[in-house]
């Protein structure tokens, strides 16, 4: 799967990009027809501790899934986003297989 990482308001390091790629690749076992994923990592300029936002837009044939999570760390936000996407992909796969 092609994963594009976009960092907003900061520069992203290689470790975080690798983490994103690895986590998104794991989603392919739930639904193998995923075309690509765009991951937007944002830092909000607030005094709030939970100022890291991970927004994942996943392209699958006939649909786009968008999940947005805000947490203290990007890893935590990505993990929550990936869990939401897992549920969406499983639901999508079940829906398609029930129509066949």
UniProtKB/TrEMBL annotation:
Cite the CDD domains for this sequence: RaiA
Enumerate the Pfam families for this protein: Ribosomal_S30AE
- Name the UniProt record assigns to this protein: Ribosome-associated translation inhibitor RaiA
Query: Which species does the entry assign this protein to?
Result: Flavobacterium bomense
State the gene name recorded for this protein.
raiA
């Amino acid at each position: 799967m092609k994963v594009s990482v976009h960092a907003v308001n900061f520069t992203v390091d290689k470790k975080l990009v690798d983490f994103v790629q690895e986590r998104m690749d794991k989603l392919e076992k739930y639904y193998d027809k995923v075309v690509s994923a765009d991951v937007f990592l944002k830092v909000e300029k607030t005094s709030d501790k939970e100022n890291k936002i991970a927004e994942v837009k996943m392209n699958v044939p006939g649909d786009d899934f968008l999940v947005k999570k805000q947490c203290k760390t990007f890893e935590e936000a990505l993990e929550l986003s990936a869990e939401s996407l897992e549920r969406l992909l499983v639901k999508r796969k079940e829906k398609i297989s029930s129509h066949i």
